[in-house]
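Progress against Task 2.4 (sequence-to-structure conversion) is shown through the following example record, which the project officer requested during the mid-term review.
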Amino acid sequence: MKRTTLFALVFGCLLATTGLTASAQSTDPKARLQIAKKMFQERCKKAGEFIHRTAENVEGILLMKVRPSEINSGDQFRMDDPYGHDSGGETYIKIFFAGFYRTPSPPPPRWTPRLGYRYVEAVDSMDGKRYRYTGGIKEVTHTTSILMGGDGKTTFKTKDFVLDKVPTPGVSPRYGVTYDDISTREERDYWIAGSSLKVIDLKTSEVMAERIGYMMDRGQGNKSGGRSPWLLAASHACPAFPKDPGGHTYQTDQTHDFVVKTLKPKLEN
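C-alpha cells generated for the chain above:
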C-alpha cells in the first residue's frame, strides 16, 4: 500500500472519530440528554447480578486488581470503572475482612454483622509480588495535624483496623475477584459509564458470578458550582445503589456485598 493511501486512511479514521465526538458535544443540551437517556435505558436491559454458582466456607480470596485510591469524580474518558469504585488502595483490601466493620452501639433493629474472609491476597504494584493480608484491631499512635488545627507534635491513640502483610506462603486462593470498565467511546461521549465485576474460579477459569452495571450523568458533564459528574451519576444507575436515611446515594461496600453472595465466608469456630 502506498504511503499516501495509508496516510489518507489513517487521517480519515481520525476525522471520523473526531467528528463523532464533536457531534456529541455540539448537540443541543436537551437533545443530548434525550439521546443519553435512550442509550442508558438500552444498556440497563443487560445490567444486573448474574450468579451462576456459589461456594461455601471460603477462607480467602485473590484480588486480581486493587482499585486505585484516587476517585474519578469528573474525568469523562478515564476508563477506570467509576460505577464500581467504592474504595481504593489499602481500604479496598480491608473491606473484605469482617473486623473492618464496627458494630454499632447499640445495634439498630434487624442489624446483621457483616461477613468477611480470614485472609486476602493481592499483587503489590510496586514490586509485582503477591502478598497475603490478614488484619485486626490494633492501637495506633497519631500526631495532630497542623492542617486540622493541631500543633504537629501532640500525639494521641486510637484503635483501628490494621493490615498485616507477608509474602504469600504458596499456592494462590482458588477464587479471584476482578473488575473492568466496559464503557465504549460512544457511551462516554454521553457520560455513561459501564462496569463489570466478576468472581472467578481460578482452578477452572469459570466465571461464577458477574455484575454488570451502568450509570449516567444527567448533567452531561456540567461542572459548574463544583459539580462532580461521576459522583452524581450514581443516583442514576442500574442496578441502583442504596440510599442513606437522608436520601443520598452511596456506592460504598458494593464490591464486598456482591462477592460474599457468591463466595460464602467460612464462619469463625
